[in-house]
Design goal:
alpha/beta
């Protein structure tokens, strides 16, 4: 045993398996109508595939495109009622799902939630800016946007560099300054997006 913290780095570890990305995440859902109403009609995810669950054919398997070709799927059945009460998670459970929102559409995303009476919290998370809400079954969702333009293929590198700068500064959390300095160190432009002011603090638990 060692008291040294696990190193933070964008370099791939020396592991026997090398993954190429996220394919899909599957959630145990309630019924199809409520799931489609929330994820397609409110969040704008196209429903790209519907078929029986291969392991339980009486259950329907819905596939939604989250916006970049990555897929979110649900096992649903019309005899299941939705339950919007907050979920209580334990070890091994999912705490929340986070989806990306373009910075130019971040404000209108909050406005759209308000228009349909769907509650949310908004927070400045230091490295990014987020809305927190819950779906029709109480699952916490984060709708996050970058505060600076970070190329997808450099994201891990930027975050790991910001982590090193944060530690060197003795700061508890990554903030705008650390992201900006990381971008500059890596030769990337550090132009911030125009986003509303928001408090730092706790989101949905």
């Amino acid at each position: 045993m060692t008291d040294e913290p696990t190193p933070v780095t964008a370099e791939p570890p020396e592991s026997p398996i090398r993954l190429s990305g996220t394919d899909h995440v599957t959630i145990i859902g309630s019924n199809e109508a409520d799931t489609v109403a929330f994820y397609r009609d409110l969040l704008g995810m196209p429903l790209v595939l519907r078929q029986p669950n291969l392991d339980q054919p009486e259950v329907t398997h819905l596939f939604f495109d989250t916006g970049d070709g990555r897929i979110l799927t649900f096992f649903v059945s019309d005899d299941r009622e939705s339950d919007p009460r907050p979920q209580r998670t334990g070890v091994g459970a999912v705490h929340h799902l986070a989806f990306s929102v373009d910075p130019e559409r971040f404000v209108e995303t909050g406005e759209a939630l308000e228009e349909v009476g769907h509650p949310y919290n908004e927070f400045d998370r230091g490295a990014f800016h987020s809305l927190y809400t819950r779906d029709h079954n109480g699952l916490v969702l984060e709708l996050a946007t970058d505060k600076y333009h970070v190329p997808d293929d450099r994201r891990a590198e930027v975050l790991a560099t910001a982590q090193r700068i944060r530690v060197e500064d003795g700061a508890d959390y990554v903030d705008d300054e650390h992201i900006e300095r990381a971008l500059e160190e890596l030769g990337l432009e550090a132009d911030p997006y125009e986003l509303p002011d928001a408090p730092t603090g706790a989101g949905y638990d």
